[in-house]
Amino acid sequence: MKTVKIRNLVIGGGKPKVCVPMMGDEEAVLRTAEGIKKSRADLAEWRIDTDPDWNNESHILQTAEKLRSVLGDMPLLFTFRTREEGGSAAVSEERYRELNRTMIRSGLIDLVDVEFFKTEETVKSLIREAEAHGVRTVLSNHDFEKTPQEEEIVRRLCAMQEAGADLAKIAVMPKEEQDVIELLNATWTMKKFHPDTPVITMSMGQRGMISRLCGELYGSAVTFAAYEKASAPGQMQVEEVREIIEKLHV
Ligand SMILES: O=C1C[C@@](O)(C(=O)O)C[C@@H](O)[C@@H]1O
Question: Which residues bind 3-dehydroquinate (predicted)?
């Protein structure tokens, strides 16, 4: 599988890398960042949509600077998760583009999450902007209601690869056990037949928890784990996840 190197971290192949979300206002995210730094996480995700002051650019740039100095060399992923995809804030297409553009240009982040179902213009322009500034793009899609069929999951992930993602991500919700198998099958199909871009997949909720642990076997390059507070249903604590993925290492 092709790999992506960010600072000293190699994503793709081997044990899945552990990403821990930071949520809330500046004080809360900085507190979480201190905890993450001491944990065995590999990278940190800043969920800007959970900051009540997300729409204030000078504020988020200041927070980003502080985060950067706490995290040191740990890669930082910037994510605005919109309400349509299970996030905390609703944002216009234009504002979504502007905020992401500002952060991409800031030199303070390593990766940016771009929701694949935004307009083609938004997706393309943010990928271009990220490429120009040495920021890696995670194209993402979330379904908090259901799990599409394997073929559809594969189709979306391949479309993300073709659009120029550095990492292609999908999170889906299972309604029954079979849905988790569907997601794992899709993940394995990507590993086997479309290995050019590392993928990140998860089946959410309690039923899907297993999918957050077996990435090495089936081909998910990153798993999301909580430092105290989970950002999505089914996330386990970072140290628990770390221990299990070490044990499952082949
Ligand atoms: O996309 C993802 C994955 C996620 O939804 C999860 O299920 O772990 C958690 C989000 O914080 C992150 O942006």
Answer: 45-47, 81, 212, 231, 235
17, 118, 169, 191: the catalytic one is: 169
Task: Please say whether the beta carbons of 100 and 113 come within 8 A.
Answer: no
pLDDT digits (tens, 9 = 90+) for 66-100: 999 999 999 999 999 999 999 999 999 999 999 99
Q: What is the pLDDT of residues 125-183, one digit of tens each?
A: 999 999 999 999 999 999 999 999 999 999 999 999 999 999 999 999 999 999 999 99
Q: Domains of the chain (ranges plus CATH)?
A: 16-245 (3.20.20.70)
| The ligand 1 atom nearest the CA atom of 231 | 11
User: How much distance in Å is there from the Cα of 142 to the middle of ligand 1?
Assistant: 8
| Sole residue written with tokens 């992401």 | 100
The single residue of 17, 118, 142, 191 carrying the catalytic annotation is 142
Answer yes or no: is the ipTM higher than 0.90.
yes
Phi, psi torsion values for 245, nearest 5 degrees = -70, -25
Q: What angle do CA 221, 227, 231 make, to 5 degrees?
A: 70
Q: Helix, strand, or coil here: 191?
A: helix
C-alpha closest to that of 112 among 35, 6, 27: 6
Give me the residues paired with residue 167 across strands.
138
User: Rounded to an integer, what is the distance from CA 66 to the centroid of its chain?
Assistant: 21
What predicted TM-score, i.e. pTM, was given to this entire model?
0.97
